[in-house]
Amino acid sequence: MMLTPEIKEIQEKRLLGRLLLTTPGAPEVEMHWKTFVSDIIQHLGIKPSEFYAVHEYDAEFSETGVYKTWATILDDVKYSKLKDVSEVVIEKGLYAIFTHHGPIKTFHRTLNYIHNDWLPYSGYGIDQRRHFDYMGPKYLGPENPLSEEQIYVPIKKITPQ
Known about the structure:
Elements lengths: L5 E5 L2 E10 L5 H17 L6 E6 L10 E8 L11 E5 L2 E9 L5 H12 L5 E3 L4 E5 L12 E10 L4
Antiparallel strand pairs: 1-6, 2-4, 2-5, 3-4, 3-8, 6-9, 7-9, 8-9
């Protein structure tokens, strides 16, 4: 697998979402998302075309550690009546942006490549900000082999020792 990221400075993003404490690949994440999307459709009659999965890790990413994840949408007045959501802020900063192609069951391979193959040789280190995934028009669902999802990894330039 060879993924070349786009390195980009992004501006602050304000989102609305629901929090879940979980571990990578845990089955409750899928139910968390289904409930969130269903509530938007049922209570507001709207199906958003863009979603953000926001992740906050205590330290560096770990395939077994507990972390915070939010199912989110852009903060917009049309979502103001949505219940049980809180504001989630993505801080501005430098990100490495990767595109995952395929179903969610292969997502761990992309993360493994990012953290074990690309990052150690990139000249960058993980910055202690929230990570997030963008699911826009090319995201066709978690099982669709043609789905595309952008993975935003917060980075900072490191100086060689």
